[in-house]
Task: structure prediction
Amino acid sequence: MPLLAIETSCDDTCAAVLDGAAVLSNVISSQVDHARYGGVVPEVASRHHLELAIPVLDAALAEAGTGLGEIDSVAVTAGPGLIGALLVGLSTAKAIAAPRELPLIPTDHLHGHVAANFLEPDPLEPPFLCLIASGGHTLLAGVTDHRGFEVLGETLDDAAGEAIDKAARMLGLGFPGGPELERLAATGDPGAFSFPVAMSRDPGLDFSFSGLKTALVYICRDLGESETDDRRADLAAGFQAAVVDQLVTKLGRALDRGDWPAVALGGGVAANGPLRLAVGKLCEERGIHFKQVGRELCTDNAAMIGSAARFTDPLPYPQYLDFDAFATGPRGSR
Amino acid sequence: MSEVRVLAFDTATDDTVVASIDGDRVAFERTVPPEGRPLHSQALLSLASEAADALGGWDGVERIAVGIGPGTFTGIRIGVATAAGLAASTGIPVTGISTLAALARSIGEAAGTGPVMPLLDARRGEVFGGLHDAAGAPMGAPFVCGPEELMRQLGSREGVVPLVAGPGAVRFRDELLRAGFETEPDGSSVHRLAGRPVCELGAMAEKTGPATLEPLYLRIPDAQLWLERDGNSPDANRN
Ligand SMILES: [Zn+2]
Result:
């Protein structure tokens, strides 16, 4: 009983086929065009999604060795995300499902990042704490059952990945900035410059990254252009350490406050090596399980959407014909 | 026409326009106007399903036709993505139709046999337009421009003066009048895209298949425009 899942909330066009918790295929077509613009341009992303949606879907079916005739439900990201991008995936999914009178499962993108951990092999059972950090979102999710999660803390301004991209840009690196910043940081001294330990004195679990960004602007200004250029590695190392430090500090604080037996990561920033190391160390100290899914399940993908869909109420035909996408989700519990 | 049972829709303008035909008979035709914003995402698939039902269900549909623009970018994509999804799901041949051609055919049907200049409101003080015959066949390339360039385009036609109508003509009524072009009163149905012409052009289209679904945006994304014009991108001078 395979399920087809489609995800187009940002700049990756994704389709996957799942059989229960087993991923039969997980196709991700990353749009490389955005590097030219130094960021994701919604109109450019939406145009690409429209070109790629059917080919990516065909590839996912072919790779899974199945056809639409065998699919028995269609899952799709309904939000949050770029509205124009979401509408391409949603329109496609609805139109695929309707003539076959298949149920449609509109899925929450963030629930997807959590649900990536429910997939084979070695699915993680709730309860656990999930830190989701990417270019679009940064939050701590308390997961007590498969059907949703509670937002324990979230960013009050920039997302962690957004801050990293901006810092990378200031240091003359390309987009997306994460991998390049990480590479440069590996050769630098994280203690060479002092970055503010943002929000660490704030007793809550919320994040803030705009102060770090501002700090980097001032440091670069004081150093001047050539000195900044000479010290790029140290600046990258310091900035990255400050981001990781804030994420891990808040994660530790959340662990203090609840009885969480496991920690998981989701989102593009979760692929960051130093972050994984620091979270691993934290978990080891506390004697709790650290669940790490592969990179292709961390960054945006459709398998995670299919996974979340397994724990989301399907809309039977024809109830979803007028279903619309949403750009921003409700805060708090989902 | 080899395929006579056609289901068609267009969401490139603010109206959600859907129809189906069985030969000369209109089986279904409905337009949902915007309510503050276009209702494409909510209205399109319900109406398309009804239009299919009017032909006896999806098995009774021999061709799907969709307006590919020009118009609003998001509207175009909702229509094209829906058509592509329906075609992938059912195996029904699909064909893309210029929204301007469909509007030209609407206008021609209501008012005469001469050449037609359908105009869509392109916002930002511009129109989408293109010269067509009264049946909707293009007589020139589609364009996007401001009123001055539009009057130049219209004025360059010696002899037969094209009939000017559509939402873009309503938008620039004063400029058109000053240049000597009259257009019907604002509320006239001649200015509105109807579903049947999209069906008819769909039935006549020689080509079907995914390649015909290439959107007719007529504008590149703003970000690309700035990048090409000013190099105003952080990465522009590193390529
Ligand atoms: Zn994401």
User: Anything to note?
Assistant: Chain B has two domains: 5-99+193-219, 112-191. The beta strands of chain B are 5-10, 16-22, 25-32, 63-67, 94-97, 116-123, 126-129, 143-145, 163-165.
